[in-house]
Specification:
alpha/beta; six-stranded parallel sheet
């Protein structure tokens, strides 16, 4: 019998895409709440009690309220995957980035409560964690992280503004330097020095580029670009039969020194590249992902499949995705 899932907040962008992916696969029994009762705690609690897994696609305060509801179920509690930022730095929750370490997929699979990573944070952590773990970038290194995302990650008001032609073509935001992804980036990358994080949004629906510049001679080991690339390859070169193998790819820099933010849209892939200039002793680390893919809904589906494994799906990247043309 397939596992049962209740998506609390399925009317939002992330929830809708999760439901669409799961409905098309037919792997799970999806429990639905009547539209008129979406905010009725008793109606939600009834479905939560029936579910094997509850996926939270809510604002942070609403996600915390739903967790409090689940806590009232005692021994009948379902497992939880939270796509909000409410629990991403909570040590009682497992962080849902299975490629970060060999044991992470198993930890997610066994966890009662998993927090789905944020989109900007996914790219930043993918770039930083392997280099900090390898000792190439000390944890106290001052860094600036730049990230540009499609407008679909900005909520209903931003989506409507862009689709109605009322939004700027490009804008920086979070310039108060208190973006909620910063604690998440620090907690899961190993970074101890608070970075300057500069997010931005472009006038395209989906896609994301996260970049970090490095002055190589300021790092104690004085690495070259190939040292950075090798650290990534060691981290992300999972055996092809391993769970989640192939979703994070380490690729050479583009030949023309350019990178299209939309290049992996509609996939769960994340690409890591190092653009280096040895004469200048500088490098730029770049992660490319779909902000609604590996940055949200498709990452959530990846975690759902680890938490509720079925015979219908092998949670590994397709062969074509591992070896793109």
């Amino acid at each position: 019998m397939p596992g049962s899932i209740f998506i609390d907040g399925e009317a939002g962008t992330t929830g809708l895409q999760i439901r669409e992916i799961l409905e098309s696969s037919g792997e799970f029994q999806l429990l639905a709440i009547h539209e008129a009762r979406r905010k009725d705690p008793l109606a939600k609690l009834e479905l939560m009690a029936q579910a094997d897994l509850v996926v939270l696609c809510l604002h942070d305060d609403a996600a915390r309220a739903s967790v409090a509801l689940i806590d009232t179920l005692g021994s009948r509690q379902p497992r939880i995957l939270d796509a909000s930022s409410a629990h991403r730095v909570n040590e009682a929750w497992v962080y849902g980035f299975p490629e970060l370490a060999p044991e992470m997929a198993a930890r997610i699979g066994a966890a009662q409560r998993v927090s789905n990573p944020g989109c900007h944070a996914t790219g930043a952590i993918a770039l930083l964690a392997p280099l900090i773990a390898a000792g190439i970038v000390p944890s106290d290194t001052p860094l600036t992280i730049q990230s540009v995302s499609g407008y679909s990650g900005g909520g209903r008001a931003m989506i409507e503004a862009h689709e109605q032609g009322q939004a700027p073509r490009f804008e920086l935001y979070g310039l108060g330097l208190e973006h909620k992804h910063v604690p998440e980036i620090m907690a899961h990358s190993g970074l101890a020095c608070r970075p300057i994080f500069v997010p931005s949004v472009g006038n395209f629906r989906q896609g994301m580029l996260v970049s970090i510049g490095l002055h190589l001679d300021t790092l104690p080991s004085r690495p070259e670009a190939h040292d950075l690339l090798e650290a990534y390859q060691r981290c992300y070169s999972a055996h092809p039969s391993a769970p989640c193998a192939g979703f994070v790819q380490v690729l050479p820099p583009s030949g023309n020194g350019r990178l299209d933010a939309l290049g992996v849209n509609q996939t769960n892939r994340l690409e890591v590249r190092v653009f280096g200039n040895e004469a200048r002793r500088q490098a730029v680390l770049v992660a490319r992902l779909d902000n609604l893919g590996k940055g949200a809904s498709r990452a959530a589906v990846q975690n759902i499949r680890l938490m509720l494994p079925t015979r219908m799906h092998d949670e590994r990247a397709p062969e074509a995705a591992r070896h793109p043309a």
